[in-house]
Amino acid sequence: MTAQTKKPGAPGADSAPGPAADDRPRSAANRVISVEVAGLEALKRSLNDNFDRAIERLAAISGRVIVTGMGKSGHVGRKIAATLASTGTPAYFVHPAEASHGDLGMITSGDALLALSNSGTTPELNDLVDFVKRFAIPLIAITRRPGSALAEAADIALDLPDSAEACPMGLAPTTSTTMMMALGDAIAIALLERRGFTAADFHIFHPGGQLGRKLLHIADIMHEGDEMPLVGSGTRMADAILVMTAKSFGCVGITGGDGRLIGIITDGDLRRHMSPQLMEATVNSVMTSAPRTVARQMLAGEALGIMNGLGNQRRITSLFVVERGRPIGIVSIHDLLRAGVV
What we know:
Blueprint: H1 23-46, H2 49-60, E1 65-69, H3 72-86, E2 91-93, H4 96-99, E3 112-116, H5 126-134, E4 139-143, H6 149-153, E5 156-159, H7 175-195, H8 199-205, H9 209-214, H10 218-221, E6 230-232, H11 237-247, E7 251-255, E8 261-266, H12 267-272, E9 288-289, E10 293-294, H13 300-307, E11 318-323, E12 326-332, H14 333-338
Parallel strand pairs: 1-2, 1-3, 3-4, 4-5, 6-7, 10-11
Antiparallel strand pairs: 7-8, 8-9, 11-12
């Protein structure tokens, strides 16, 4: 009788138990993240006066921050340049090889060069370094080798700690590029805070996408003029309800003799005051005095927070926009929905 050989993996086949397939990638991911977190912690501890000096130097230039790097450092450099530019520091990326073939002309005497190189001996950077040194253009280096040619040539060198790469062979740039990216973010945010860059400034550079929509101003979406549901003080409730129904905001604003907004009546107020005498009453006996209002320059995202009751406030579906106490517009939760803010 011939013995049958069981195929590997077949039911009943002898095989050494191993980790579940899902565990192997997750284990690798956890290891990589742990190594890179350790690198970032080391970077945090390594920051010194050179970082402060670099921020002072970059804040003092009249031109732009020119970011450069080769290979993976170049990819990181492009992101750093984009982050700088979007947070109020004019910047762009120059490829080292292209610089040697004419793009050096893009760099002016008012600029500063931020050069990235893990080894500090990237030959493609030589022409750029020679150029900025010849014309006394500030050079700030980010490198892991303090004694390298790039670090020695730099006016200020920001040294990355000698942390292990997450690659098991220690070859692929992983931890080093993560540290470079984080240091670039730190530079951008430090310059942002030094310049007093605001959310309104941020919106100028981010008009599109979800972020741009959250940074819309109330003035961009509010209703004005005859669209506003307004009646004067002393108006009969029967007439106020007609205005309230016609304008479809679920509320009506009450103005005083000087045109200032003195109160508001909402659907909820109508329910609370419902009685046979309601139609003959005046708006003054039903309105909520000193209603919550917003300014035209407020960001739509802030108005959304007010409507949603942030800060223990009652939820609101519409807000009047006032200027010097007088209503100049109205905005509703539906306007925010249409604008994509919500």
